[in-house]
Amino acid sequence: MQAKKIAAALVAGFTALALSACGNGIAGGGSGSGGGAKTTFRLAFNQTEKHPQYKAAEELGKKLEKATDGRYSIEVFANETLGSQNEVVQNVSDGTVDMMYIAGPVLESFNKDFIVFNLPYMFDSPEAQAKVFADDAVMGGLKTSLEDSKKITVLGALHAGTRNVYNAKHAIKSPADMANLKIRVQQSDSQVQMIKDMGGVASPMGQGEVYTALQSGVLDGAENNETVFNALKHDEVAKYYSYTRHLMIPDYLVMSTTVLKGMPEADRKALLELVPGAVDQANTGLLQYAADSKKASQETGAKFNDDVDVAAFKAATSGLVKASINTPVRQALCDAVQKANAKA
Ligand code: GCU
């Protein structure tokens, strides 16, 4: 972590230098209009270069460069080099980082309506989820909801795998097997409540700290998709992976509103038009990456258990879902999901 913090501080230092050199006062970009100036957006990512979201962002950068005659491109900083999602989102808000991928629960504290897509057993399938996220009549309000308060614009919502519980002790078949297990969750109230309802002890923390906490026994387990389980080597220290299938939480591609609005209109339009293609690429890639990750974890000796009483976990968490859908806006989002579930 120390090395990461130093790297983040260095990057921040370079940013400050670059800014004073540009002298445009708009952090991280937005000055692409005149004099052939070239702006490279910095996109923060908390996973590895192998992840399809990394590849999609790289591709997006190349296409953006072409579409804007070289005025804009994207550099992706993987592996939390710019900081954890909780830290970096503040930098996107103040415009010192241009873009990032961020998990839904982190946005809950800015606008509680984001909770709907972070609730257990909300989406039946990646297809249903993609249908909802592609519909701007459903998503438009959420996407712009942080612009005034946080200066953050949501560009797109992505499939981020199906999350399951894993731990160092035993396979999980029913909520009773979760008793006394300290399970890492993402940092939000909904995630803490969810693990409590599933029968475990919730421990919220950033993704980068999980491996060490598992290794030292501070945590017994965590919950995530197969890609994180393998890529971050959690499979070495918590080898029982059980298909609770309790969450399909989206990641969002977000951008500093100040930087986005500082782009010339045609360039901004070009960027916005390229986003759905990047989302599709990342979503398709993730399904294959999850399957490959499972195989790789099995080879290291991890045990996958699909004998899980999913209905019991669903019943145990239904109170959280009901209590969270408590405004007309959240109800409308939930209705849209149910409609997509029925059709997909
Ligand atoms: C997923 C998700 C990340 C998130 C991570 C986590 O892998 O794609 O955005 O940070 O889970 O659990 O923290």
Ligand list:
alpha-D-glucopyranuronic acid
CATH topology: D-Maltodextrin-Binding Protein, domain 2
Mind telling me which CATH architecture this is? Answer: 3-Layer(aba) Sandwich
The chain-level mean pLDDT equals: 92
User: Proportion of β residues?
Assistant: 15-25%
InterPro entries: DctP_fam, TRAP_DctP, TRAP_DctP_sf
Organism: Propioniciclava flava
Protein name: TRAP transporter substrate-binding protein DctP
Keywords: Signal
Describe this structure in words.
Residues 1-20 form the signal peptide. The protein has 344 residues and is α/β, with parallel strands linked by helices. The chain has a single domain (101-344), classed as D-Maltodextrin-Binding Protein, domain 2. The protein has 15 helices and eleven strands. The strands form two sheets. Strands 7-6-8-5-9-11 form a six-stranded mixed sheet, with helices on both faces. Helix 8 (189-198) runs antiparallel to helix 14. Residues 5-34 have low confidence and may be disordered. The structure holds alpha-D-glucopyranuronic acid.
Salient structural properties:
344 residues; alpha/beta; D-Maltodextrin-Binding Protein, domain 2; five-stranded mixed beta sheet; 15 helices; 11 strands; globular; TRAP_DctP; signal
